[in-house]
Description:
This protein is mainly alpha-helical. It contains 45 helices and 10 strands.
Amino acid sequence: MTAPGRRSSTFTRLLRHGFTDPSAAERLLESDQLAPIRADPVLLEALGTTADPDLALLGLVRLVEAQGGHTAERELLDTLVAAKPLRDRLLGVLGASAALADHLARHPGDWRELVTYEPQDLHPGVAEFERGLAEADDPVSLRVAYRRCLLSIAARDVCGTTDLAQTAAELADLATATLRAALAIARDAAPGDAVLCRLAVVAMGKCGGHELNYVSDVDVIFVGEAADGADEGKAIQAATRLAAHMMRICSETTVEGSIWPVDANLRPEGRNGPLVRTLSSHLAYYQRWAKTWEFQALLKARPVAGDIELGAEYVATLAPLVWHAAERENFVADVQKMRRRVVENIPVAEVDRELKLGPGGLRDVEFAVQLLQLVHGRADSSLRSGTTLDALKALAAGGYVGRADAVQLDDSYRFLRLMEHRIQLYRLRRTHLVPEDSADLRRIGRSLGLRVDPVVELKREWKRHRAVVRRLHEKLFYRPLLDAVAQLATGEARLSADAARERLVALGYADPAAALRHLEALASGVSRKAAIQRTLLPVLLGWFADSAEPDAGLLNFRKVSDALGKTPWYLRLLRDEGAAAENLARVLSAGRLAPDLLMRAPEAVALLGDGDGGGLEPRVRAHLEQEVLAAVGRASGGEQAVTAARGVRRRELFRTAAADIVASYGTEETPVVADQGALVDQVGGAVSDLTAATLAGTLRAVVRDGWGDTLPTRFAVIAMGRFGGHELGYGSDADVLFVHEPRQGVDEHEASRAANAVVSEMRRLLQVSSADPPLLIDADLRPEGKSGPLVRSLKSYEAYYRRWSLVWESQALLRAEFVAGDEDLGRRFIELVDPLRYPAEGLGEDAVREIRRLKARMESERMPRGADPTLHTKLGRGGLSDVEWTVQLFQLRHGWDEPGLRTTRTREALAAACAAGLVSGEDAAILDEAWVLATRVRNAVMLVRGRAGDTFPSDGRELAAVGRYLGYGPGHVGDMLDDYRRTTRRARAVVDELFYGA
């Protein structure tokens, strides 16, 4: 007897053998059922080798109890002790699968299936499984026989007699035999239907690929034809009834549970299409209507039941279409988009546990392999296997995938599939989520041979294999392109030049020959630089291919690499900082503006990283102005000073454009920014602040160069238009007014000459031809327009506005904001114009009519000839002008009474009008959406073309690039234009009501 407070020796041995609840296990061992063998040491040793010793022991006790008599119990226990193969197989199953333990408890004689194995039993095929199911003549008996066969598969699996590929193939063969048995039961139930038709069952998905899971939907497609002399319509109806009955036999729940769902949704038109079609109907659909993913699915098609000859004819008929699918427009983009959509549809709470569909999961391997098969299987029939691992092996043998990569991917895929099998085997439930419970993780880890610390080891191994899959998924399609041009590794089969070009065309490269030349220049040789490039380029090529301009992306990358290749930090930045390489790929392939800015000073690449370059966060105006003024202060003359200021502007324009592109495209680490208005505000604010800082620096340089420390007159720059509204785009001019005030004792003419000289020199220096983009100053909003003086004194402005001011000038002054020069003078100018732009008691009716007349005249006269008014972002229907004039009318009429309307910013003023009840929330949202969209389009056009434009590009590639920036994938530019027209049409309806009073 064990002394109180001390553990029994059995308790200690149970702990040592891996039991987690030794007290409960001790009680089970003391039960009458195990009395004959409890002292036998082989029992504990055998239980200790299972995935879950506690579960195995409980299952064994239940099985012994279920034997129903002393003789049967002794037979089981004696065999268990005497026959090690049975002991390993039976306890292995009981320790891995509670569901199969339940089956054995309900059918206690089935343990005998595990006693002996003939040689043919080690790797049974369809014929052996058909014999195992032969006695089943109804759904219930079919389920019992199916589980009996499944028991033997699981036993071989958990004992290591079969590997993953063999187990998956056996499961597919058992499914084949089951479908045949179910169809036979359906035929017996409706012999009249059976004689009318020929019905073929074609397996798809993992069953078709001979790589099935323990619990998975069995995907099928049905093909029917009329039997000799039968009416086709009646025959197809009969075939449909047989097919539907067969599906129910497998899918429906009975007292013995279900087998698995039979899913026919991969058929033409999915669940909306007929369940059974003739071969000619299938062919017509695939020739005319099928989408890219449907050809990808056909890679796995395999006839398994019913009329095998008809099924084989179906596969042979459609095979040529499958192997030409890669020639379809946007083929690779469609496949990649489908993969992204799968990931996006995973619930956020599950994405990190998703073994199959998540990043680095099983689907990443399968998609990559299938993509390569479809591209290269046209010319190489050795690649046309429906089994993932066989196809991967063939791809490696053909040089389409590096051998080392293929070995790693094979290893990781096997590990992830084994995890999936062990998760499903426990309850025989269809799931791909890794459990969170530590007991479940422990069982899975032990079943995979991880015995020291199963939970920690499992998580570590899963994370490692997932990272391998994710990395190789990105690399798989691109790395052999480099091997084809680098010609380094010996003994490796490589892509031929033709195969490399074929792959580049499939990826969307318009000039594959040029792309190969760029790759060769970047990756050839044995230098450290070339080695790092060969590491980077596979992933970069994929990111380039995900853009509208992959050729431009690769060319620009070569230019940047040529310029910076000798610097020690460039390639290290791309290799070591996670965001830098992807950010660079997005920026280089998104259009002309950002690459042009970067080429003028390639060292700005450092901004794309995570380190000390400041990243892509916009800098505040005070810091920008401080840097510009410091650079001006260090310069020796006016031209050098303004050159320095323009250099800062160029770098910051690149920062702003890069941040905009990355936020619009999204990256692996950072999703696409959902708030498009926030993006517009960020760009407008950043470019406006940068322009203000540049003007401040230029003013300082000009004054210092011509007059020393003090100009004879106080001088201020007033921002107008989109500049004053903090809404500048990449290609916007700087609308300004210049105001001065003679210093005490200075003659007015001398002060005026000095002020005009300052303006002339500022304009000249900001437009001098150089590597930096010019900054155009537009003063046309000044009194008297182009006919009036460039600069006026504050008194002159006061006199003009008191006597001559027109309503359009009051409207223009709504945007007036001091930005540079003498701050006190700027403040007094704003005080001067406030009564004009926010008139007491608001505008009179005559002024309102005048504004409406001006707007109507502008619409009719200023629209460029031939421009589509539904697509012109500035002057078109529901565009920027429509929204801004509507908002400004509210400001002119109500700004005196509503402080929130006294802002230079359109969106702020619109929100204030809504808050004041001047416009409904719905109408305000419609106007805001249209204004944001039109602004985004203008920014996109400048980013893509490198020059400003107010309408969508006519060039197809440029239009696609604008669409990509706006979130539209390949082939969806029509949707983009439709959405733009719909958004602006709704906005124009609001404008007609609010502005014109219609």
